[in-house]
Structures are given as C-alpha cells and as structure tokens.
Amino acid sequence: MRFFLTIAALFGMTLASVSVSSVAWAENGTGGNLVPGTSGLNLPSLSLSFAGNGQQKPADTVAVLRIIMMLTVLSLAPAILIMMTSFTRIVVVLSFLKQALGTQQMPPNQLIVGLALFLSFFVMAPTWKNISTNALEPYMNEKIDQKTALAKAEGPIREFMFSQTREKDLELFLSLSKEAKPKNREEVPTYVLIPSFVISELKTAFQIGFMLYLPFLVLDMVVASVLMAMGMMMLPPVVISLPFKLLLFVLVDGWELVCGSLVRSFG
Q1: Helix %, strand %, coil % for the chain, to 5?
Q2: How far apart are CA 199 and CA 45, in angstroms?
Q3: Mean residue pLDDT across the chain
Q4: If we measure between CA atoms, which residue out of 125, 105, 94 comes closest to residue 255?
Q5: Greatest mean pLDDT among 68-72, 101-105, 112-116, 137-141
Q6: Are 189 and 179 in contact (CB under 8 A)?
C-alpha cells in the first residue's frame, strides 16, 4: 500500500487548526457521582472549521483545504489502484478464466479480486519502491518540497503506463483532447495517458481471455458432439464437460501458467 501512502502524504501532511478537547469522566455539580442515565464517559470533541478569533491567517485556511484534499484522494484510492496499475488486466483475465471453466461460484469473486490485488502488488512493487525511495522518503525527511515530490512520484507511474499503452490508443485521446501534438512523452498530459492506458489494458485482457477460452470451448464442442451421437440430447453438455475441464486445468497446472503468463506480460 506504499503507493496510496505516497499519494496521501504528498497531497497534504500539514497540520490544520484543529482543536481537540476531552473530559475523562463526567461529574455533577454536587459531588463525584455520575450523571443519571449516562455512562459517565465523554468522547473527545473534534472541531474543524474556518472560523477564527479574527487573527486567523490565510495559511490556516490553506492547511484545512489540504487536509480535505488528502481525504478526497484517500476516498479515490480504489479508483487509482484500478486505473493506474496492472489490476485491470489481471482481474479481467481471471474473470474470463472463471467463466471459461464454467464453475459458477467457484472460485468466489472475493477470492478472484484478492488474487488480482496481490498480483498487482507484485507487478507494481518495483514502481512503488522507486516512488518510496525518490519521492516519499525525501519528502518525509524534508529534503524536497511537495511540488518536487509530486513530480518524482508521478514519473515512475507514467513510465509504467507508457510501457503498457499502445500508440494507437494514445493518439486517439490526444486527438480527442484537441491538444497540440507532443514532441516527447514528457509533454503528454496525464489525463490523456490514463484513459489510453486503460483501454490498452482492456484490449490486452480480452486477447488473453480469448486464448483461455479456446481449449475449454473445444472440449465443450467435443462433449456435445459425443452426446448427440449417443442420442443423449436431453443431457446438458456442461454437466459432462465440467469434470474434464477441471481435470485438464489441474493436469497442466493452470493457475501457475495463468498467473505466470500474466506477470510476464508486463515485462
């Protein structure tokens, strides 16, 4: 999760004018007895506002806005994970594999998403390590400012997306954006690069999914032909082909082949 921590830390690690006050136990005015009907424990009060005593500086308001922006970025972290990493390709391919096997609810969707998530961590580990070394750690040690840290964090992510983006898709969104033709990669806006990367990942995932479907489709056709030849047209072919699909997948060590091919596809 270093990537998300990097984004959050770079967008705002400045303290706002936040006042926190707490009272340990509530007491009434006549003695140390608890107030009837209460537990006697007051939760801390948190106040976050733009109001001041007339001496509030503009920098205080900027600090509050930075915290709000940081919270917004954290709420968008799942979208960042899906759109700017290898997660899209991996989860789509694994979903195709599940449908090709025809196992209905096995493996569960939660397991598919979890496997795709950890495979994404594995694929993106060098990129996140680069961000942590060159952007997050220097910023936390106050060696670089926020603007420089953002630029250094954006570089490795853009480099990864460029390596997986087709030129045709990039040209499409450049033409749609009405931007001048960039001379190099550094001039390509990030808001143009991200959708180009996403549709390139979807195309690659569908190509891999089609290749996964072929052996299982052939097996379904063979089983259906045999059942028709035997006159067993009322028996669903899926019932017979499913055990053979699972046997074939296990014999060829399917999970190792699929996961290994997915990781190597980002090389």
Answers
A1: 70, 0, 30
A2: 47
A3: 75
A4: 94
A5: 112-116
A6: yes
Structure tokens at 221: 């056709």
Query: Coil, strand, or helix at residue 85?
Result: coil
22 CB-side CA count, 13 A:
8
Buried b or exposed e, range 128-141, using 16+ CB within 10 angstroms = bebbbebbbebbee
Q: Which of 97, 80, 81 is nearest to 262 (CA)?
A: 97
> Alpha-carbon distance 72 to 266, whole Å?
30
Q: Helix or strand or coil: residue 124?
A: helix
3-class SS of residue 46? strand
d(CA 66, CA 14): 7
Q: Identify the DSSP state of 182.
A: P
**How far is residue 164 CA from its own chain's centroid?**
16
Cβ atoms of 6 and 155 closer than 8 Å: no
d(CA 200, CA 177): 18
Does residue 102 contact residue 245 with C-beta atoms inside 8 Å?
Answer: yes
pLDDT tens-place string over residues 49-106: 555 555 556 666 667 777 777 777 777 777 777 788 888 899 899 988 888 887 777 7
Residues in a beta bridge with 47: 19
Contacts of residue 25, Cβ cutoff 8 Å, sequence gap at least 6:
34, 40, 41, 42
